[in-house]
């Protein structure tokens, strides 16, 4: 009897120990790290819903459209100048990046909320621009920490992976809108407070989960990524259904609560996939207790070979073939990077301008605030579909037909021209269609840009280089949004006042009503997007031979060597 009790206790103790070991295995696994990455990207929507709360900033602080567009430019500047996060990522672990990002997010948006609610004295314009830039720059730290880590963990499926990660970021605006409506109702001031604390809390919750994990390629890796994709598609379809329904029907508070609960449930559903996959790997890797594990140290050469020193100029001129690891200077001074920057400035810059002005576009065309929220949500949802489509379809076309990614970028830039023209020459309902087209083409450009940079310039300095690629976005946004769109809008508004023999009151906001308010500026945006498409097509011609080859051969050989 005593022996049986002892055996039962030993089995129970072993089972308990096994559960603890599995919990540690789960926490250290690639799949939980990937789930945490999706969740963080789903919370970065503060910059994407600027169109909802920008009207509140303009009204409460008495700004004209040029001033508001200047603040919008600093938002774009902060969210795209990721060179600092990239350089910091070269020498620090991922958790450090996430802590910096969450701190910047909270401080920036919290001070903006204090200013809008009148809890502090009205800040000067340059101070508001600084607060917005700080808040938006937090996105780069989350982006760099998540994207670089995931691409290194899943190098052979980067197209699908970047599409998924950027897809969740695209959905984040619609996700935040549903949570905001459930918690605070239709109160734009409280929305600013929400985007101050919620993304920071999510990043801190997963701060030690996201890291580079050395593991061999899993045979069913693509299938699992597609399962994550299916869940995200269901989430996107639900958000779109809620957006349309909330436009047509007045929701009571309990309906908003139910909608937000379902959204959160779908966000956390992938945890079941993570648990299943990690349990499968755990059962495969279990080793009997009497086995001895032998660790083989990494081989080292008996003598170090001296690397010949070369001048900085010589290093820049002697570039490796496309697909090999470029140094930062070699990539920065390459023609391919210059073309990428031009197409990004024109393409993403024009789309950012359209998205930032959605609130005022709706107002000028006579849409109520509820419809303006629908525009922003539609952009967010179709932003997701664009990112998913570009990531998955470009990967399939590349692998199966050697279809170059730069050519797909060219096609999406031509598509965005159509969206801009629908706003320049509006007809009833055209803004809804334009929101879908602009959101779709805007979303598609990000995973394509990130994938092209990783394929042409290698992964060694990817943390810095993909942030360099995004530097062109705020340049395009400043020229097209601040220097053109805002100025032309204010010019039309002042003309309206003069026709009515009225003058703008001191400190009052400047509003333009009518289809003429944005006509000239959006014709210019359409022309800029077309110019970016032609620039992208030049890159297609330059890289056509490179994309005809097997660009993933190098990573397959490295994986096979590591497993061997």
Map the helices and strands.
Elements: H1 2-28, H2 30-41, H3 50-61, H4 65-80, H5 83-91, H6 94-116, H7 125-153, H8 158-184, H9 188-205, H10 221-248, H11 253-268, H12 270-285, H13 312-317, H14 328-332, H15 335-356, H16 358-364, H17 369-401, H18 405-424, H19 430-457, H20 462-469, H21 472-499, H22 519-548, H23 553-563
Distance between termini?
50 Å
Give the rounded overall mean pLDDT: 84
Q: Which of globular, elongated, flat, extended, rod-shaped describes the shape?
A: globular
Low-confidence stretches: 1-14, 289-307
GO cellular component, one term: membrane
Main location: membrane
Family: Belongs to the major facilitator superfamily. Phosphate:H(+) symporter (TC 2.A.1.9) family.
Membrane topology: Multi-pass membrane protein
Write structural notes for this entry:
This protein has 564 residues and is mainly alpha-helical. Helices cover 76% and strands 0% of the residues. The chain has 23 helices and no strands. The chain has helices spanning 2-28, 30-41, 50-61, 65-80, 83-91, 94-116, 125-153, 158-184, 188-205, 221-248, 253-268, 270-285, 312-317, 328-332, 335-356, 358-364, 369-401, 405-424, 430-457, 462-469, 472-499, 519-548, 553-563. The two termini are 50 Å apart. The chain crosses the membrane at residues 31-54, 95-116, 161-184, 190-210, 222-242, 254-275, 331-355, 375-394, 406-425, 431-453, 522-541. It is a multi-pass membrane protein. It is found in: Membrane. Residues 347-547 form the NFD4 C-terminal domain. Keywords: Membrane, Transmembrane, Transmembrane helix.
